[in-house]
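User: Can you recover a sequence for this backbone? Please restate the input before giving your answer.

Assistant: Of course. Working from this structure:
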């Protein structure tokens, strides 16, 4: 089996054409899968969807898709492939909701496991002092929300979009406007059940098999397939006060964001976004928001300036409205936004968390959802955010953008650094997300090539200016880049790979290791 250096060597060579011994050619492996006795089944045809993802840029067809009905199905399949040994190129990718961006959930000529077919297993909610939900790795967060709300409970930390699976987001981090307070989703899990790259089923937590637990959290699917997770819950609010204010000066905007995340008694959600060169601004971006002062707001003009929108939310219950109003006013009085640009809205907790789904429906109607998504997500140390903003928003992108640009700080003291997630070295870092959509046939500024070039320029600037940034949802094509990404965590990452997936069977679409053959 692969010892660490052997894996390193393998990953050095992942571009080389793999040698497949004749008795394990790719065409007869699917045949051997058919002999396995399972609760679920394999499909060998009509698997094109498994060669696609939200990014819509990488397409690798698997030989088979497993539709598991039980953990046993997954463990049996992985074990079978493991026991073929290093003589076959066969790999396995768990596929959650397929919302990866660069083929990370694909397995070229391998087996894709359709994790959502596990979702028929019940979501179990446990009330009490330390409430939690017991869910399968293939459950969508939206369904977990619906179920926990029936008990007046909710997970604490979210992503902006809820049609993603538990296994999919826990393989990265799961970051949204609550992360400054609760840490990312990977910090709000009590226990996991995992099928390792050897096909073993292992229960792990902070107390039991802790190394595997932390390896898998943020582990890019490299160490095991998450088949079950125990998610920590809190009491759910009924309503949300949702607030947006504008700034024209970046450092005032970021100082206010940092002020808010530093306070113990702050909002429940803090994010922000950049508005570049948008005319018709006030009719456009605020949709269901009302200006606090309609007449002054109607006179506000962006004059083509780049603006920064701070977005905040406070959870409350209808019987607590007075307290909520007082707290909102107190927090807002500490900020330095443009006074006429205070916009307010009140929505249910469910509608607030599910807000991106409304955009999805609209974009789908216009045929603009299933287009290429060359997204770029960065984590930037606080000390470098002003330089970054000046160069990127003020210079590189000062004319147009191809989608939202989110920007908000998180406080890392709430984050557990034993997970596989890699972050910049400072205590406070910003998530900056360029969520671009490309128009498929365009060769202009909204075309894929232009946006990819722009992303490259941003990354080059970060490197040459030594900003100490890290990619979130990272994507690299050489081992040198992966090594640099992991930095001092690379050795641990390699050791864990050799312990839990020694043949490098799992999640080949991340392109970190190639199966040893
Ligand atoms: P997939 O794309 O199916 O899988 C992702 C990776 O995880 C693959 O390598 C796969 O092999 C592996 N994997 C999948 N399931 C398992 C499992 N059970 N066990 C082990 N490995 C597994 N992220 C944020 O943090 N915050 C956001 O606010 C946010 N918003 C988003 C909004 C949209 C519209 C989209 C498309 C993505 C967003 N993301 C966000 C990114 C998202 O978290 C990742 O793309 C995530 O991987 C998607 O989940 P999925 O279930 O589709 O996973």
């Amino acid at each position: 089996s692969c010892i660490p250096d052997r894996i390193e060597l393998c990953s050095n060579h992942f571009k080389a054409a793999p040698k497949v011994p004749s008795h394990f050619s790719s065409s007869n492996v699917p045949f051997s899968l058919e002999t396995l006795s399972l609760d679920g089944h394999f499909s060998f045809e009509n698997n094109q969807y498994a060669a696609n993802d939200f990014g819509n840029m990488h397409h690798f067809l698997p030989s088979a898709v497993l539709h598991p009905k039980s953990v046993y199905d997954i463990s049996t399949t992985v074990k079978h492939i493991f026991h073929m040994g290093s003589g076959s190129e066969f790999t396995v990718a768990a596929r959650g909701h397929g919302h990866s961006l660069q083929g990370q959930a694909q397995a070229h000529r391998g087996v894709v496991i359709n994790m959502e077919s596990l979702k028929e297993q019940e979501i179990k909610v446990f009330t009490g002092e330390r409430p939690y939900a017991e869910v399968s790795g293939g459950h969508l967060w939206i369904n977990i929300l619906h179920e926990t709300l029936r008990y007046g409970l909710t997970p604490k930390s979210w992503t902006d979009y809820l049609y993603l699976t538990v296994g999919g987001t826990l393989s990265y981090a799961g970051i949204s406007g609550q992360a400054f307070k609760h840490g990312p989703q990977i910090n709000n899990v009590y226990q996991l059940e995992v099928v390792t790259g050897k096909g073993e089923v292992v229960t792990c937590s902070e107390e039991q098999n802790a190394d595997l637990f932390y390896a898998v959290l943020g582990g890019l699917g490299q160490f095991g397939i998450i088949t079950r997770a125990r998610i920590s819950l809190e009491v759910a609010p009924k309503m949300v006060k949702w607030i947006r204010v504008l700034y024209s000066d970046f450092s005032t905007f970021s100082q206010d964001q940092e002020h808010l995340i530093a306070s113990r008694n702050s909002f429940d959600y803090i994010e922000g976004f950049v508005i570049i060169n948008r005319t018709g601004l006030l009719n456009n971006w605020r949709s269901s928001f009302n200006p606090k002062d309609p007449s002054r707001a109607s006179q506000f003009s962006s004059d083509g300036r780049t603006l920064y929108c701070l977005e905040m939310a406070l959870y409350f219950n209808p019987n607590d409205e007075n307290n909520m109003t007082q707290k909102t006013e107190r927090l807002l009085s500490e900020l330095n936004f443009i006074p006429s640009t205070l916009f307010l809205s009140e929505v249910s907790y469910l509608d607030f968390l599910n807000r991106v789904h409304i955009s999805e429906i609209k974009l789908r109607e216009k045929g603009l959802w299933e287009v290429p998504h060359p997204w770029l997500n960065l984590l930037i140390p606080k000390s470098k955010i002003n330089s970054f903003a000046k160069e990127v928003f003020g210079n590189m992108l000062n004319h147009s953008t191809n989608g939202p640009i989110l920007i908000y700080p998180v406080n890392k003291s709430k984050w557990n650094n034993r997970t596989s997630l890699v972050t910049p070295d400072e205590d406070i870092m910003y998530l900056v997300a360029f969520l671009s959509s490309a128009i498929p046939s365009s060769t202009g500024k909204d075309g894929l090539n232009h946006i990819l070039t722009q992303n490259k320029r941003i990354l080059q600037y970060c490197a040459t200016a030594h900003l100490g940034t890290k990619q979130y949802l990272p994507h690299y094509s050489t081992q040198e880049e992966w090594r640099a990404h992991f930095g001092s965590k690379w050795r641990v990452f390699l050791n864990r790979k050799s312990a839990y997936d020694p043949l490098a069977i799992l999640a080949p679409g991340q392109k970190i290791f190639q199966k040893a053959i």
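That completes the design. The first strand starts at residue 41 and ends at 43.
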